[in-house]
Amino acid sequence: MQLRESLAGLGPATLIRRCADLPESEADDIHTAATGVLRPLARSAWMDVMCALLRPNPQYGTRGSGMILTFFGTVWWLVGSVVLDGSARTAALVAGAVLAATLLVLAARRLDGTGGREAYERSARTFKWSNVGQGVGIAVVVAVGNITGGYSWIPALIAIVVGAHFFPLARPFGRLEYRWTGSLLIVVGVAGCAMALSGASESGVQTVAGLGSATVLWATTAWYLVSGVPGRSTPRQQSAATGS
User: Which residue windows are transmembrane per the record (predicted)?
Assistant: First the structure.
């Protein structure tokens, strides 16, 4: 009650800043108090969004996933940037470095790392074979592309292979958003294939596949950072994983 009264005179922006500065142990109290103060002020859509932004709990066990996705997003960004010319390449590399560093720091500091080891141990078999399949698929794409001279197809088809490998991982890891990540990577790959089919240059396809795939992977990490849950959903996730 005292906490709620102390927040009553603060504006929304100040509330958000204060919530970010307070110790993690007070997060739940802050969310309850801030929501109780803000909701009576207005019922408009933007106020509901603001209340959602005050959600103190990050999604369960997203730190490892966020950091891995950010790392491979950086690799894809380099793939797409190195074939650009002059100042465009420099600008892309600098922007990518800044974005990647920012996401890695935020993922390490803000995301929840609980249960990462348990999730891996539970899903080790699926993880292993999914990545073996991905590796074989990439090797086949590179080999066939080099044998046939279809070099412009290689980055686009690799994006499709990488996207497909996310689907079997979604349920065992309790990360159903991997289905969206995989689907969007496949869309990027299909767009690259369409460019290759139309006679686009190898560098053009590589830029689209590289920057597009990086954007998808980084966007998944960004989604982890801005989305929250009202409480830990560990039991549901563990139950779903056990049922698989």
Answer: 64-84, 90-108, 129-147, 153-170, 182-201, 207-226
Per-residue burial over 35-54, b = 16 or more CB atoms within 10 Å of its CB, e = otherwise: bebbeeeeeeeeeeebbeeb
Structure tokens at 6: 């102390």
Choosing from 33, 53, 73, the residue where a domain stops is 53
Domain-located, residue 41 = yes
The pTM is what?
A: 0.68
Are the C-beta atoms of residues 162 and 133 closer than 8 Å to each other? no
> What does the DSSP 8-state code read for residue 172?
T
When pLDDT is averaged across residues 87-105 and rounded to a whole number, the result is: 94
Domain that holds residue 41: 2-53
Closest CA to 224 of 168, 167, 180: 180
Is 17 among the domain residues? yes
